[in-house]
Design brief:
The chain is α+β, with helices and mostly antiparallel strands and 131 residues long. It is built from three helices and six strands. Helix content is 20%, strand content 27%. The strands form two sheets. The chain has a four-stranded antiparallel β-sheet with strand order 1-4-3-2, covered by helices on one side. It has a two-stranded antiparallel sheet with strand order 5-6. A hairpin with a 5-residue loop joins strand 2 and strand 3.
Amino acid sequence: MKVLAWKCFATLLGKPWNSLDVQFENVSFHRATVLNPENPVQFSVKIFENSGDFQICESRAVVVSGKIRRLEGLTEDAADLTNADASISQTSPSREFILTGVDVYKDFRLRGYEYSGDFQGILSSTAAGDP
């Protein structure tokens, strides 16, 4: 799940996510999400302006929250997200990126979740949580 926040954060800064060093702080997993191939799951990622606080939501419920900041040799104060429009909008295609199902389940495996077979219903997702 943190990869969703990382990719969204990188998109807001206009940088490739795999070349952007970030630090996560105070990450909390609030609840598990049940995946079903007949009912696609939509996640939305919100990164709050100036603070770098983020929330990953599903069905308007917070699933994961925490703080993300950039590290690229900057001081801690300068590394926080500043002057970026941190709300992802479905009407802003220039900020949209697609996260494949492979990426989602890779992140799940890294977090200790071993979804397989019928429990891998996510095909792709965007920063806005669209399928």
